[in-house]
Amino acid sequence: LVVTTPQQAAAEVAERAGAIALQTRQKILGVVENMSWLELPDGTRMEPFGSGGGAKVAERLTRAVGAPVELLGQVPLETALREGGDAGEPVVLSAPDSPSGSALRAIAEKLAVRRRGLAGMSLGIDTTRHT
């Protein structure tokens, strides 16, 4: 997974991390954008770190890989997420219906249903030796 925030600078670092993963023959499962927005008491969203970083990273990695790299989800900032982290309890357990808990659960569900393909896997066949 490549994790970024909406900020341009963070997106550039995440893109470089993805490029390093590709150079070391790691498979990129997708992109997660953290701290995407802060939901205000009146229901509006404030984007203190800007927007679009996760989508930009997914788009650029898609071009680099030559296959779709999905933006798996965006996780909002909220008190429940921080409190769960401080307490050592994942927000998906401590506040599963919170915006961040719901976002993380949706990301996990996307990852859980992905089947691993055979591309890049060793088949245990040696074509250089003849018996």
From TrEMBL:
GO biological process: one example: iron-sulfur cluster assembly
Pfam families in UniProt: ParA
GO molecular function per UniProt: 4 iron, 4 sulfur cluster binding; ATP binding
InterPro entries associated with the record: NUBPL-like, P-loop_NTPase, YlxH/NBP35
SUPFAM superfamilies, per database record: P-loop containing nucleoside triphosphate hydrolases
Keywords tagged on the record: ATP-binding, Nucleotide-binding
Name of the featured protein: Mrp family protein
